């Protein structure tokens, strides 16, 4: 990962290639349908590629990757409107960062509830669900510029609320 972060394209390709079987096993152990595993692996690899700059080389790499994979899996469940069962929540709760992530998620949801619904929906779609502007616009029946404006205004309203506290 460090060589990849330094711009070594061979190391980057090797890293992503080495992660494929690891992520497949991870999602299979979590009970993900075989049909969804490849999609989740791909989404996770894209996130590793796009968010590599958030990795702290002073910390272990595996927990960082597994956290990304876990959030991609949860997002996939939400997109399909599947509910996470109590057994799954128990398993997720055993993971180290779950309580911190849950607390953060509840904080985000509480803040989003305090801004206009249109802005909250746009911020949630773009920043949390990681949908593109085009996907969000098509899903919500709005123009791409309307989505961009709503995200901008929503983030501005959130920043204002958070900085006041």
UniProtKB/TrEMBL annotation:
<keyword id="KW-0731">Sigma factor</keyword>
<comment type="similarity">
    <text>Belongs to the sigma-70 factor family. ECF subfamily.</text>
</comment>
<dbReference type="GO" id="GO:0003677">
    <property type="term" value="F:DNA binding"/>
</dbReference>
<dbReference type="GO" id="GO:0016987">
    <property type="term" value="F:sigma factor activity"/>
</dbReference>
<dbReference type="InterPro" id="IPR013324">
    <property type="entry name" value="RNA_pol_sigma_r3/r4-like"/>
</dbReference>
<keyword id="KW-0804">Transcription</keyword>
<protein>
    <submittedName>
        <fullName>Sigma-70 family RNA polymerase sigma factor</fullName>
    </submittedName>
</protein>
<dbReference type="Pfam" id="PF08281">
    <property type="entry name" value="Sigma70_r4_2"/>
</dbReference>
<dbReference type="InterPro" id="IPR007627">
    <property type="entry name" value="RNA_pol_sigma70_r2"/>
</dbReference>
<dbReference type="Pfam" id="PF04542">
    <property type="entry name" value="Sigma70_r2"/>
</dbReference>
<dbReference type="GO" id="GO:0006352">
    <property type="term" value="P:DNA-templated transcription initiation"/>
</dbReference>
<dbReference type="InterPro" id="IPR013325">
    <property type="entry name" value="RNA_pol_sigma_r2"/>
</dbReference>
<feature type="domain" description="RNA polymerase sigma-70 region 2">
    <location>
        <begin position="20"/>
        <end position="81"/>
    </location>
</feature>
<feature type="domain" description="RNA polymerase sigma factor 70 region 4 type 2">
    <location>
        <begin position="108"/>
        <end position="158"/>
    </location>
</feature>
<keyword id="KW-0238">DNA-binding</keyword>
<dbReference type="InterPro" id="IPR039425">
    <property type="entry name" value="RNA_pol_sigma-70-like"/>
</dbReference>
<dbReference type="InterPro" id="IPR036388">
    <property type="entry name" value="WH-like_DNA-bd_sf"/>
</dbReference>
<dbReference type="InterPro" id="IPR013249">
    <property type="entry name" value="RNA_pol_sigma70_r4_t2"/>
</dbReference>
<keyword id="KW-0805">Transcription regulation</keyword>
<dbReference type="InterPro" id="IPR014284">
    <property type="entry name" value="RNA_pol_sigma-70_dom"/>
</dbReference>
């Amino acid at each position: 990962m460090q060589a990849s972060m330094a711009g070594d394209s061979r190391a980057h390709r090797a890293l992503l290639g080495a992660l494929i079987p690891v992520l497949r096993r991870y999602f299979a152990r979590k009970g993900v349908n075989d049909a969804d595993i490849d999609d989740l692996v791909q989404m996770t690899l894209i996130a590793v590629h796009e968010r590599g700059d958030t990795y702290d080389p002073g910390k272990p790499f595996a927990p960082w990757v597994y956290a990304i994979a876990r959030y991609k899996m949860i997002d996939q469940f939400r997109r399909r409107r599947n509910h996470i069962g109590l057994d799954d929540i128990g398993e997720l709760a055993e993971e180290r960062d779950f309580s911190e992530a849950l607390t953060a998620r509840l904080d985000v949801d509480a803040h989003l509830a305090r801004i206009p619904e249109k802005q909250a929906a746009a911020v949630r779609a773009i920043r949390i669900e990681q949908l593109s502007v085009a996907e969000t616009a098509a899903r919500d029946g709005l123009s791409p510029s309307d989505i961009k404006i709503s995200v901008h205004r929503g983030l501005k309203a959130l920043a204002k609320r958070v900085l006041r506290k």
